Amino acid sequence: MQHILIVEDDIAFGTMLQTWLRRKGFEVEKATSVGAAVKLLTGTFGKEVDLVLSDLRLPDHDGLRLLAWMHEHDINAPFIVMTNYAEVQNAVLAMKSGAADYIAKPVQPDILLQKIKDAMEQNAQQASSTIQNSTTQNAPTAHNSKLKTQNSKLKSPRHIEGKSEASRQLYSYVELVAPTPMSVLILGASGTGKEYVAHRIHDLSARADKPFFALDCGAIPRDVAASEFFGHKKGAFTGADTDKRGAFEMANGGTLFLDEVGNLSYEVQVQLLRALQERRIRPVGGTQEIPINIRLVCATNENLEEAVGEGRFREDLYHRINEFTIYMPKLSERGSDLFLFADLFIRHANEELNRTVEGFDSEAAELLASHSWPGNLRELNNVVKRAVLLTRGSKITTAELTQAMGQIRTDNVLQLHDEDTERQRIITALQQTNGNKAKAARLLGIDRKTIYNKIEKLGI
Fold it and tell me: Is 201 helix (H, G, I), strand (E, B) or coil?
């Protein structure tokens, strides 16, 4: 039987948790303070404990003190933090200190049970890996020191997947479909991380050692779309000075990711469908066909079913690319993951801007949590980077965060609304930039992909 220690000063809540976990088959002890927990862990129970579930705010010490004590005494049981939503930033600090996971109060029992099982399973895997490594590592101490020095210089991970139920469900679907040959359609708002999910599908598939090639369909002018997809031969058209390999050939054997697939013109949709059906392509200006073998992953923030009903997207192509659908949750739907992502973006900004910002103060953390983040992860990343740049102390305060978020809101004044206004503002911006779409996008406060989409949609 697996043993759990609950450290919670709310006696009623702690007793409820103890009773519920015992019903789930665990042996459970509880303590109401760090001191009481230490007494239990220094006794026989310390050798049996498989997991510690602790509140952060305790009468005698912070819960992190107990976590540090466990590390000092080589008690390697996973440590899960319980905290109020407004204090999730402290839970992120706990995870930096070695906690396995955290859960926000009020605790949802099913989520807690899953987190407990995951933490115990991961701890068992790490213990097994440690035993294997200890039997195979016979290198000298100097070599080990060198490895530690190299590891200390490693940069922060570029991506994390989150711990919320929405994130857990998302990546369970990714793991489910990745090993199959099915084509996948990823649906979600801009900035939710669709390309990262496409990468994960590729990385977990049998094609992981083959190419992953991404193509932004929203930025492809209609007259060169065939060349982008299928390549061209030298002299095929004006400006074709050399042979070019298209996206299908670049991804051959691996995964082709088509972002913003809903923006393809009807003519290009026909060409794409033919290539997928025949599994052969012919470069523009070429005479020979090339066999292709790709796994297709597409993404869009448009409602393709609606586009099919309106005749803007071919129904047969829709079914071809949509053998399995993954819906990307918005940042506002990922709960306390917000702080995990914000913490990661702070580390990225520190590395990029040569800063040493540690995090947010409590008031700034509350402001962060109260914002709706319509631009999702992309907006959060931009705000955090600006806040890090503006911060002079060790932590981001409401002053820097408000200023960073204010820049976003100022940009949004230039965002486009009704179609007549959109058309006129885009035309004006293009005139002011001599037709340079990238500069026009910056002038309007929108990204390059959006302006290409708008130009195509509005027929400018």
Answer: helix
Tell which wins on pLDDT, 298 or 263: 298
Beta bridge partners of 216: 259
Whole-number Å distance between alpha carbons of 99 and 212:
34
- CA dist 69 and 2 (Å) reads 22
Structure tokens at 164: 């919320």
Phi, psi of 207 (to 5 degrees): -100, 15
- Fill in the amino acid letter for 432: Q
Q: What angle is formed at CA 259 by the lines to CA 180 and CA 419, rounded to 5 degrees?
A: 140
DSSP line for 247-316: HHHHTTTSEEEEETGGG--HHHHHHHHHHHHHTEE--BT-SS-EE---EEEEEESS-HHHHHHTTSS-HH
What pLDDT sits at residue 447? Answer: 64
Helices and strands of the chain, counted as H and E runs: 21, 14
Q: In angstroms, rounded to a whole number, what is the distance separating the alpha carbons of residues 311 and 308?
A: 5
Burial of 152 (0-12, 13-18, 19+ CB in 10 A): exposed
CA 217, chain centre distance (Å): 21
Instruction: Please give the C-alpha separations between residue 142 and each of 130, 149, 228, in angstroms, as whole numbers.
Output: 20, 11, 52
CA distance linking residue 118 with residue 102, whole number of Å = 12
The 3-state secondary structure of 131-149 reads: HHHHHHCCCCHHHHHHHHH
Reply yes or no: is the peptide bond before residue 106 cis, omega within 30 of 0. yes
Please say if the pLDDT value at position 411 is more than 50.
Answer: no
- Specify the 3-state DSSP secondary structure of 4: strand
Q: How far apart are CA 25 and CA 2, in angstroms?
A: 8
Q: How far apart are CA 438 and CA 448, in angstroms?
A: 6
Specify the pTM.
Answer: 0.63
d(CA 39, CA 33): 10
Among candidates 85, 138, 80, 160, which has minimal Cα distance to 112? 80
Q: Identify the bridge partners of residue 299 per DSSP, sorted by sequence position.
A: 186
Helices 63-72 and 34-42: crossing angle, nearest 10°?
20
Q: What are phi and psi of 279, to 5 degrees?
A: 55, 35
CA distances to 13, 30, 34, 53, 71 from 39, in Å: 21, 11, 9, 16, 15
d(CA 294, CA 276): 9
**Average pLDDT for 15-32:** 93
Q: Nearest CA to 332 among 393, 376, 392, 288?
A: 376
